[in-house]
Write a sequence for this structure.
């Protein structure tokens, strides 16, 4: 996991960003969060370069940084912190994440096809025009997410959580949602056609209450 070094700024409770040693590798030390670091443009450039030049990335803390127009195809992230980051026009295929944190991040116009993301948190994040089509997203935390015109089609969402999420014009067609939790999830023009809705949890009593609401095509809104 990433290091839990606190920002050196007095009264700041944020964690310090990862810094890099002379060889360009992640150091165990850190000084400031992105908000208080004196050379934001320099650390942003180093972060992007590190991701660009490494296929396997472990324990990177990039919290608060904006990433735009970068290719994450076949990148592998383990125990990284991307909380409160902004991802714009990210195009990738085969992204892999394990035990990463994307809480309160924003994804806009991103295509993350055939991703393999497990044991990862997106709590409170916003997805706008973002595609996770054909992905394995098992046991992830999507609690409180805001999703607009996005797609999880053809994905495995086994045992993930969308508690109190807000899904608008978003598609979860042909998904495995066994044990997936949608308690207090607000849905507007959401399609679950061909997904195994009988195996999901839509209220505190389980999914039985919603079984009679399924249409003959297996879709409900």
């Amino acid at each position: 996991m990433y290091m839990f070094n606190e920002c050196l700024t007095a009264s700041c409770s944020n964690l310090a960003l990862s810094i890099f040693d002379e060889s360009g590798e992640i150091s165990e030390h850190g000084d400031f969060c992105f908000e208080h670091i004196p050379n934001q443009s320099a650390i942003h450039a180093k972060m992007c370069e590190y991701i660009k030049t490494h296929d396997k990335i472990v324990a990177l803390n990039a919290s608060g940084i904006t990433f735009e127009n970068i290719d994450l195809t076949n990148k592998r992230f383990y125990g990284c912190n991307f909380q409160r980051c902004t991802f714009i026009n990210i195009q990738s295929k085969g992204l892999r994440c394990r035990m990463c944190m994307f809480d309160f991040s924003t994804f806009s116009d991103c295509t993350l096809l055939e991703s393999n993301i497990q044991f990862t948190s997106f709590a409170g994040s916003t997805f706008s025009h973002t595609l996770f089509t054909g992905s394995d997203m098992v046991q992830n935390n999507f609690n409180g997410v805001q999703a607009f015109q996005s797609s999880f089609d053809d994905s495995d969402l086994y045992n993930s959580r969308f508690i109190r999420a807000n899904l608008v014009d978003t598609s979860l067609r042909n998904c495995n949602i066994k044990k997936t939790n949608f308690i207090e999830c607000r849905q507007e023009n959401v399609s679950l056609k061909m997904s195994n809705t009988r195996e999901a949890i839509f209220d505190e009593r389980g999914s039985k209450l919603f079984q009679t609401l399924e249409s003959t095509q297996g879709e409900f809104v």
Q: What stands out?
A: The mean pLDDT is 91. The helical segments are 40-53, 208-211. The two ends are 39 Å apart (CA to CA).
